[in-house]
TrEMBL record:
Listed GO MF terms: dTDP-4-dehydrorhamnose reductase activity
Name of the gene this protein is made from: rmlD
Protein name per its UniProtKB record: dTDP-4-dehydrorhamnose reductase
Pfam families in alphabetical order: RmlD_sub_bind (PF04321)
Compositionally biased spans, kind Low complexity: 1-11
Length: 228
């Protein structure tokens, strides 16, 4: 069901019963479509999402608007989330081990977000009694590009990071418009979540930890021997 359709009944129910209304995580459609620069670094909080024009449909902004009518609400925005299983870091690690030199998009900016931080950050807001409103919850540290993340992974696993070739989205898509358009800037301002007493992991550390986890899983697999 589209977010806007369930959000309004949810909002009415929460108001009647005095419940808190968490909503999220909203992903990187909330971000601007220009790369960060000296005057254009991170998306501020709060405020209505911008940059939604890069999507054909806009259910999440409508859902946010509906839920803000509930006085006791939390709206959580995030981007570039990685967790267990196959994700961008794991894919780059696998390519590094296979001797592949991937071409990776280099003009989209953001911060890697650990799924574990999302899982911990949302209940932190609720349990700590943080002020209601909109929060950005992504990795911390300096913004990066997907190509930078790929090079980090190659470096962390002992491979030459120069094997990663930075390309534009158009080059990656072979000059076509195939695939869902992505915002150029997914960097979100973290002031509100930091003020609430929660500090997400540094984006570089998230990449390093996930690369180490991949290496550990590979080593464990290589160490297994068939049963007699």
């Amino acid at each position: 069901m589209p977010a806007a359709r369930w959000a309004w009944p949810s909002r009415r129910g929460c108001r009647r019963r005095g419940f808190r209304s968490p909503h999220g995580p909203g992903r990187s459609w909330t971000s601007r479509t220009r790369p960060p620069g000296p005057r254009r670094s991170a998306r501020r909080t709060p405020g209505p999402p911008r940059g939604a024009a890069v999507r054909v449909r806009q259910p999440k902004p409508a859902g946010e608007t509906a839920l803000r009518a509930c006085p006791r609400h939390y709206v959580i925005r995030t981007s570039w989330v990685i967790g267990e299983g196959m994700n961008f870091v794991a894919t780059m690690a696998r390519l590094a081990e296979q001797g592949v030199g991937p071409s990776v998009v280099a003009h989209q900016h953001g911060r890697l977000t650990a799924a574990a931080d999302l899982a911990a950050g949302v209940p932190h807001l609720v349990d700590s009694g943080a002020p209601y409103g909109t929060y950005h919850l992504t990795g911390s540290g300096e913004p990066c590009t997907w190509a930078q993340v790929a090079r980090w992974v190659f470096e962390d696993l002992g491979h030459d990071p120069a094997r990663v070739t930075p390309v534009s989205t158009a080059e990656y898509n072979g000059g076509t418009n195939d695939g869902a358009p992505r915002p150029v800037n997914s960097v979100l301002d973290l002031c509100s979540i930091l003020d609430a007493g929660f500090t997400p992991a540094d984006s570089r550390a998230v990449a390093r930890e996930e690369a180490a986890a991949f290496d550990g899983r590979r080593s464990a697999h290589d160490g297994c021997s068939p049963r007699d």
